[in-house]
Amino acid sequence: MDPLGSIQPSPKNWGEMTPKHPSSFPLRVFLVSKEFVSIATEKEKWFGTAYKQEYLPEELIKKCETCEIISELHLPTPNEFIPTDFQLFSKEKNSTRPQLPTKIKVKSK
């Protein structure tokens, strides 16, 4: 199975999600470490990265479904400095050449 090809955009409404596996939970967990290479059972086809894919235990899923919300874990506020307008401006619009600076010569005595 292709790990990157199986990633789909998340629906905005989690209730509309139809899982492929009976015990599917709308969650993916990626654990990355060189120590996991020894337990990897598959290789990614483009770069040969070793990985292992497995389902989360039902016990863990039930805990996740009934856990309390931790207020310290939240998304950050939107960054107002990230641009949103990517409109390109035509060079022809400002076709007049700006005036170049003039060098002022000072007479030496």
Structure summarized in a few sentences:
It contains 1 helix and 2 strands; from the N terminus they run ββα. With 109 residues, it is low in regular secondary structure. It has a domain at 29-67.
What report would you give on this structure?
The model is unreliable at 1-17 (pLDDT under 50). It is built from one helix and two strands, in the order E-E-H. The protein has a domain at 29-67. It has one helix spanning 58-66; strands at 42-43, 50-51. The protein has a two-stranded antiparallel ribbon with strand order 1-2. Helix content is 8%, strand content 4%. The chain has 109 residues and is low in regular secondary structure.
Count of helix runs:
1
Give the C-alpha Rg: 28 Å
Strand fraction equals under 5%
Give the helix proportion (percent range). under 10%
- Based on CA inertia axes, which overall geometry fits? elongated
Measured distance between first and last alpha carbons: 84 Å
